[in-house]
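W.,

You were right to be curious about this one. When I first looked at the sequence I had no strong expectations either way, so I just let the prediction run and decided to look at it fresh. Below is the sequence, 135 residues in total, followed by the output.
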Amino acid sequence: MNTTETHRQTAIAFYNRFDSGDMDGVLALMADDCAYWLAGEPGSNATAGLRTKAEMADIFNRMARAMTGPLRMTVHNTVAEGDQVAVMAESRGELKNGRIYNQHYHALFTLRGGQIAAVREYMDTQHVQAIWYTR
């Protein structure tokens, strides 16, 4: 398998591990200095902006605790070139408060040394606000 295909498989594995509820596995795919950017202007919601791996671990674990089961992930398409992989994906999960989080993503992964070095994740930020932060 060539390096580009290996990168594609790593990006897909990221979502597959979410789908199975393996948060430790998700985090193991990320480099210690991973720079993870979430769509939205910083301050527009509690997660928007550039985050460290430790901050993402906190976000992912808070999400997992608020849900009735794993955040089910479906990868719809990937495009890989060199050290970058673009992914179109969808998630679906039920929060303990009864709300349904059904999100559509476009994420650009940059890989280095077999790990995820950076992510730019685009999603519907209004849906994030409505499901996770509106009372």
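Here's what jumped out at me. The helical segments are 3-19, 23-28, 53-66, 125-133. And, maybe more interesting for your project: The chain has a mean pLDDT of 94.

Coffee later to discuss?

I.
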